[in-house]
Amino acid sequence: MRDCCHQKSISSIIVALLSLPMSNFVAHGQQGTPAEPVGVETKMEFSLRGQRDARAIKYGDWRKFCFQTPGAKTVCRTTISGKWETGQSAVRVDFIEREGEDAARLQLFLPVGLYLQAAARLTVDQGKPFRIPFVWCLTNTCIAGDRANPALIRQMETGQQLKLEVADTNLLSVSTMLPLSQFASVRKAAASRIFKQEVDE
C-alpha cells in the first residue's frame, strides 16, 4: 500500500513539473549567482583535473509521451533513457514542449555524486557545447534543466550524436554519447502514449 501511494505521489510530482510554464523554471541549485544566457557555454571558474571513463550505458529508442490535465494545455516530452548493465537507470533526457508555446525545455536526470556548479554540457557532433545548469537533487538522482536553445534544437534534429558531459566531485570529466538519428522523426510524430491526469478536488 505504501509503495502504491509512493508511486502515485511521484507521478503527481512529475505531471505537476511538466505543467509549469517554461518561464517558471529557474536553476534553484545555483541561487545567489547571476543569471546567465540560456544554453550558452561560459568560462568555467574552476579547472577540471582530467577525465575518467563512464560505466557502459545502453540507450533505448527515443519515445514521445503526452500528458493531459483538465483545464491545462497538453504537455509532451520526447525522451530517451539509458541504463547500466545492472539494469539501474543511469541517464534520462527529456525534451519538453507545451501545446501552443514556442519555447521548449531540456531536462536531464543524472546520477548523484556530481559537481553541481559545473552544470551539464550538451554537444551535438563536433559543435559547440551548451550549458544546462542543475536545478535540484533528490535521493537518487540530480536534475539539470533549462529552456532549450533554438540552435541546440536545430542541431539535435540534424545531428547524429549528442555528447552529455558532467563533472564528478573529484572534478573529473565524465561523458556519454546518445544517439540522435530518431530524435526529429519521433518529436514530430504522434505520441506513443498519452497519460490523462485527473485533478482531485
From TrEMBL:
Which InterPro entries does the record associate with it? IalB_sf, Invasion_prot_B
- Signal sequence, renumbered to the chain: 1-27
Instruction: Respond yes or no to whether keyword Signal is given for this record.
Output: yes
Gene3D superfamilies in the record, alphabetically? Invasion associated locus B (IalB) protein
Name the keywords, alphabetized. Signal
User: What is the protein name for this chain?
Assistant: Invasion protein IalB, involved in pathogenesis
